[in-house]
Structure formats: structure tokens, C-alpha cells
Amino acid sequence: MTDLNAALPLPVRSDEVLARLAVRRSASAQLLAAPGPSEAEIEQILHLGARTPDHGKLFPWRFVVLGPQSRADLSEALAALAETQGRVDKDLAVLAKLANPPLTIMVVSTPIQGHKVPVWEQQLSAGAVCMNLEHAADALGYSASWITDWYSYDPAAVALFGVKDGETIAGFIHLGTLSEAPLERPRPVMAHKVERRP
Ligand SMILES: Cc1cc2nc3c(=O)[nH]c(=O)nc-3n(C[C@H](O)[C@H](O)[C@H](O)COP(=O)(O)O)c2cc1C
């Protein structure tokens, strides 16, 4: 239970966190291998992931922890669905991303329609949760891959994951360990992205 009277510590400078944030990178889901997080680490990652801003304290998201068995079953069902839909080979190939990683957390955006907090803001909070999960995993020494792919949007596929009407898959956060350091990827020229006003 959250102690709402507890005084939280003020932030202090952490060069360790700054250095880590400066080099954090996603992994390719196919390259994520064992070990994945332990049960205690999964709990920690979920708790830290949920410690995310959201307008109105609505907590408009939920997690589904998908172990290897459920993902193997889902991959099979999705492959069958892809066949019936006449999908291209690439759509079948990306199912490997779902099957390979040691652990996957599906983040589902569950906005309340018609609430005074706009749905867009509630969805943004689900995105922030995804990013927080990645930071938590990174701090524990794991790599992460945030994937959506076609099965996050196809209605029949979404139903296989148990996602209900009005909900959206914000992402599959695949977690595991990389055996080789990832390469850097292009980053924006900050001068093109930042405007300063007095
Ligand atoms: C909402 C969202 C969905 C994504 N879906 C996919 C996807 O389906 N397939 C893919 O290859 N990458 C996808 N990505 C991109 C990967 O997460 C990408 O590897 C990552 O953004 C690399 O950036 P980083 O190294 O700074 O973390 C997605 C990213 C986001 C934010």
C-alpha cells in the first residue's frame, strides 16, 4: 500500500544515471537471449514502470506478462491468422520477435472515454510507462526492445491477446540480455528540434 504521508527524497545529482541515459539503446528483439529478469526483478520492473506521470491519477494502462509458453502459443495462432489473411512473408517473419526473447511485457493503453482528461493524454501516459519499463530494465542490466508490429493493430490479432474494445496495445517490451554491444543509431540534430524563447 502506498504511504501518502511519506516524504520522498529530493533528487540528487547522479553521474551514474546521466552516463547510462547517454548511452541507453534498444536491442533488436531477435538478439535478446537468456538470462531474462528473475521473478523479483520482473516485480521491480513493473513497479518502476508504473511510477509514471498520468493526468488525473487514472492509471490508464495495464500490463500482461507474457512468458515463453504463452508467446509460443500466440505466435502459432498469429501465424495461422496471417495465413488466412494472405499476409506477406515479412508479416510471418516478424513473429520471431515475439517468440525469441526471454520475457515480454505487453503494455495495454486503457483510456476512459468521455473523461475530462483527454484520451490522447491517457495514451501518452501508456507510452511513458513503456519508456519507464525500458529504463528500469536497463538499470538492472537488461536490454529491451519496444515493438508493435501488425498484430498490435489487426483486430483479430488483438483479440488473441485478450485486448478489449477501447483498449490499444502501446507496445510489447521484450527483455533479455545481449551478447554483443549494440551499435549507435542516428540521433536528431538538436538544433533542428529545439527552439529557445526568452
Ligand atoms: C511505439 C513504438 C513502436 C515501435 N514498433 C516497432 C516495430 O513494430 N518494429 C520495429 O522494428 N521497431 C519498432 N519500434 C522502434 C524500436 O523500438 C527501435 O528499435 C527503437 O526505437 C530504437 O531506439 P533506441 O535505441 O533509442 O531505443 C517502435 C518504437 C516505438 C516507440
TrEMBL record:
Protein name, as recorded: Putative NAD(P)H nitroreductase
UniProt cross-references to InterPro entries, sorted A to Z: NAD(P)H_nitroreductase, Nitroreductase, Nitroreductase-like, YdjA-like
Cofactor(s) listed: FMN
Domain Nitroreductase, residue spans: 23-176
Organism: Brevundimonas pondensis
Family label: Belongs to the nitroreductase family.
Highest rank taxon of the organism: Bacteria
The EC number(s) this enzyme carries: 1.-.-.-
Keywords: Flavoprotein, FMN, NAD, NADP, Oxidoreductase
